[in-house]
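Design job #97: recover the sequence.
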């Protein structure tokens, strides 16, 4: 019984790690307050007017750590054109680990810590990492990725959204 349960958990983890992509249609990004590493706050309303990637991640998540350089490169590629990135560390991630990760990797975007889990809950009860949302200039979620995105496809979507008025 125990082996079957472990096998099922491993199979589920592998299925999630296969970069499953769900489109959610157009829906308004949930009202949230993001507490950044420097103690300042941003809200969902602050995202409007820019195309924003909101990434839920954890320092203990191998896929999250692996995709972070690609997220940083994407940020650097598009930031001058009205693109932003917000990385939201999960509530179970020790804040000192998050701060250390952001500083040692010199992440070029803002990082928030979701201490209470309220932000993850508001964004569809995010429990699997990485989970990434693409928000258009109107503050609407246009895509959700569970697992590492296909970055070529992601860049095409970003280009398309940046071109919109």
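Job complete. Output follows.
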């Amino acid at each position: 019984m125990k082996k079957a349960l472990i096998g099922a958990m491993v199979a589920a983890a592998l299925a999630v790690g296969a970069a499953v992509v769900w489109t959610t249609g157009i829906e308004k990004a949930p009202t949230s307050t993001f507490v950044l590493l420097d103690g300042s706050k941003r809200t969902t309303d602050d995202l409007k007017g820019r195309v924003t990637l909101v990434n839920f991640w954890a320092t203990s998540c191998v896929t999250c750590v692996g995709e972070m350089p690609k997220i940083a490169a994407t940020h650097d590629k598009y930031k001058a054109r009205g693109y932003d990135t917000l990385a939201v560390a999960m509530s179970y991630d020790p804040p000192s680990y998050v701060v250390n990760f952001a500083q040692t990797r010199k992440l070029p975007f803002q990082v928030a810590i979701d201490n209470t889990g309220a932000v993850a809950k508001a964004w569809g009860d995010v429990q699997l990492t990485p989970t990434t949302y693409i928000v258009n200039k109107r503050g609407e979620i246009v895509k959700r990725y569970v697992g590492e995105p296909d970055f070529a496809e992601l860049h095409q979507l970003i280009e398309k959204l940046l071109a919109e008025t």
